[in-house]
Amino acid sequence: MQEPRDPVHAAIEPAPDDVYDVVVVGSGGAGLVAGLATAVAGLRTVMLESGSLVGGTTAISGAGIWIPANGKARAAGIADSQADALDYIRACAPDGWQQAEDARWRRLVGEGAGMVDFVEAHTPLRFDLSDDADPYPLAPGARRAGRMLSPRPVPASAVGAWARRIRSPHLPHLLTYQEVRRLDAWHHPWKAVLKRLPQVLIRLLTGARAQGTGLVRGLLAGYIDAGGLILTDARAMSLQADGQGRVTAVDATCEGGKRTLHARRGVVLATGGFEHDAERRKAHFPGPVDFIASPPTNRGDGHRMAEAVGAELARMGEANIAPAIPARLNGTFQPLATFHHREPAAILVGPDGRRFVNEYLFNLGEVLLQRDPVTGSYRHLPAFLVADATMLRVSPIMKHFLRADPAFVRTAPDIDALAGMIGIEAAVLADTVQRFNSCAERGCDEDFGRHVDPLAPGGISPMRLAPLRKPPFVAMPFNLTFLSTKGGPRTDDRGRVLRPDGSAIGGLFCAGVAMANPIGTRAVGSGTTIGPNMTWAWICGRQIVGDLRDGERHEHEECEERRHDVIR
To answer: Average pLDDT in the 154-174 region?
Structure first.
């Protein structure tokens, strides 16, 4: 990398005529990668962030990124290929998706490894493999390891004064994603820190942070160093188009008033989801909502602006639905995404008081979103998590953050009293708990197969089951919680925004969860939000720069041709 420029000066100095080559809207992982790709190529790039802090949801995440056939896996001797990754995505996708999404899947698996190499070449970021397995290990093309990456810690000095202007997480990202997994920091936070004490002390002294903080720091440092500009508190309001319908400018509201930022080469929408747009969210997700765990700037600005210039919106019913608990962050209410439903002595029950799912199901959000085909109402909502006293005792982090809303947790000395608190028939809930306890004692969940784990020895994990016996008993709402929606402007395999007739809107691109995401609610890995989001941003940037050509051949395309030759 070149010697870094003064980051604050470089990032806030606008062009005097507000004419740029590229305008990027949004400063999360997708926006930063798109900006990095165009700024490194020498294009005059400006990024608009509607809030005062940069980084979006990426900054508060664990920053696991799913990138198949990456160079890190190859260097570690892990065999993988783009063709296998494509087979895996196809096998895991919902029925009917392949015909519509296959071209984008091909592009995605073909560009991810190159994106990682590019980011490492032009930023301080260095990625390491995690031991995550693909969550559908029996599907064709799945891998037991090698597709999940996460960044090493990045010091605060990489971004100078901008370190204080990156959105902060609930808990400082002192441990890497890999360390959090390996040391079970959720249940044993102090033990995890003690086991990595020398590294933690060094990180405290240098201000180094990993996970989402580190990822955003590294991308931001590379973007600024390449000459990229950032305007915070600059909310994009509308797009301007010329007589041929090509997008040429963004109208924004900034601290100094309204401004028009002209884009000679293109506009990239990377504004996140629309979950904080109450009207649009209710139109597509009318069920009970517990929390929205993303930053409040995810208001669907990109969706609204793209729609106004003729874009087709698609996949609007797709979302990252995951559990969360009430929490406060820097004095503000900000829910914290968790996996508390996977405690051994915990179950999920629907409004009838019965279990309805394997609580360890990877894509649990799909089940929560299931609707009755006749009434259209959600089949399993309102739902509740029911557990015994063990859950709070073994989760000190959870117990700490639940203080933000003590009423969220209902406790009772017995199951009958708990049922009355949550409006469920006592006899039914008691029967449900008794049946689960019986299953737990035998180590076999006969109803939903929760004990089955293809990655465990013998394919069985009885440790997933423990009876609910220790009072007080606990219940918490378990309805829809949004990490992000995943519908938006439909794009082609080059990130170009499309009209309903399939034609591309000139000069307009979209990446991340702002787009009609080709991997929807049914994720294919823990990092199949951030990883693909960064890859789509890289694709948009390459298309704008002119590096993405029709004549490009990828490994998976060659494999497909070989398969067709065999068939013929």
So the answer is: 96
